[in-house]
Specification:
The structure is a single chain. By secondary structure, this protein is of the alpha+beta class. It has helices at residues 17-29, 33-41, 55-65, 69-82, 87-99, 103-113, 120-132, 136-148, 154-159, 164-167, 172-183, 190-193, and strands at residues 200-206, 215-222, 227-234, 239-247, 252-259, 264-267, 269-273, 276-283, 286-296, 299-307, 315-324. The chain has an eleven-stranded antiparallel beta sheet with strand order 6-5-4-3-2-1-11-10-9-8-7, with no helix packed on it. Strand 7 and strand 8 (276-283) form a beta hairpin. Helix 1 crosses helix 3 (55-65), helix 6 runs antiparallel to helix 7 (120-132) and helix 8 packs parallel to helix 11. The protein is elongated. The N and C termini lie far apart (83 Å).
Length: 326
């Protein structure tokens, strides 16, 4: 008897290592979706070295993938008995228990797998199991924890049959608001919304010649509301685009502009002067400033300046009004 065999149920202890290998091969051809979810969920957190799978654990995975959840569960149970901190084995034990219809045991095992918050889907699944068991207070507690840990998929919450009882609870709407706020944080961040006055479709004219159209622009929200994309078309047919976003690491707005001739301008710093957003960039002694000011709800001023002497003197590049299209 080899040392690993003590983990296997009695009816499997006669298997040789070659048979174990056969099981592994068979599982690679027919792994069920529930096992794939379990294995992905058990991936180590970023920055942590993965724990190599032993032949014992690989065999249990193979048995589960081949549909023998009962034998797999016995192996996983022995693994966690030997090492109660083996989170991945707890997660697999929960999956095997669920495959056998033992929802209560699955809930307990998912809770153990969720310790430390490294297996985020285990936190979610703990909540889902408690929902199936009718433990709605616990279900909301665990699902709130899953959202805080980064599991913020509105479609999953709205479609998972395990959460059917929770969707009838009066707490569900406010919970989903928290999910959506986590899924699309920029849509609810005042800093990320501060430049929204530039959103819209615009005709653009010089401030000094309001009847002379120099181009048009469409400015739209992109990247889940975390950025504004300008689509510029000059009257002569030239095009350009700028991507504008609030960088939470620097607490500043930034802009990256690309014109159709290949010209690129990257404004990495900015400040707010009252309602005016002022972008800045420096290349040696050459500096540029680009200002956006909401004149009224239908007009935005865009004012460009350059300096060739490190900001001692400034020259106007252009002074435009963006007029909202009716």
């Amino acid at each position: 008897m080899n040392a690993a065999s003590r983990y296997f149920p009695d009816n499997l202890q006669h298997l040789s290592l070659m048979t174990y290998a056969s099981l592994l091969h068979r599982a690679s051809l027919a792994v069920s979706a529930i096992v794939l979810i379990s294995l992905v969920a058990a991936a180590p957190a970023m920055g942590q070295a993965p724990r190599a799978k032993s032949m014992v654990e690989l065999t249990a995975d193979s048995l589960l993938g081949a549909g023998n959840a009962k034998a797999a569960r016995e192996i996983y149970q022995r693994l966690v008995n030997d090492d109660p901190g083996f989170l991945r084995a707890w997660n697999s034990l929960a999956t095997a228990s669920l495959a056998l219809g033992d929802v209560a045991s699955a809930a307990v095992a998912y809770e153990r797998a969720a310790a430390g918050g490294r297996i985020v889907t285990a936190i979610y699944n703990a909540g889902a199991m408690h929902s199936r068991l009718g433990h709605l207070d616990k279900a909301f507690e665990w699902l709130d924890r899953s959202v805080a840990a980064g599991f913020n998929q509105p479609g999953q919450f709205n479609s998972d049959a395990d959460l059917a009882a929770m969707r009838k609870d009066p707490r569900w709407d406010s919970f989903m608001q928290r999910v959506i706020a986590s899924f699309e944080p920029c849509r609810h961040d005042p800093d990320a919304r501060r430049f929204d006055f530039w959103l819209g479709e615009w005709n653009v004219t010089p401030v000094s010649a309001p009847t002379f159209k120099v181009g048009s622009s469409v400015v739209q929200r992109v990247s889940g509301g975390c950025a504004l994309l300008e689509n510029w078309t000059a009257s002569n047919g030239g095009e350009g685009k700028s991507l504008n976003a609030f960088n939470t690491q620097t607490s500043q707005w930034q802009q990256y502009w690309v014109g159709q001739t290949g010209g690129v301008v990257e404004f990495r710093t900015s400040t707010w002067d009252g309602p005016t957003l002022v972008f800045r960039t420096t290349e040696g002694t050459r500096m540029q400033r680009l200002s956006f000011t909401p004149v009224d709800s239908n007009t935005v001023r865009q004012f460009g300046e350059t300096s060739a002497d490190s900001g001692k003197t400034w020259q106007v590049s252009y002074d435009f009004h963006y007029h909202r299209k009716r």
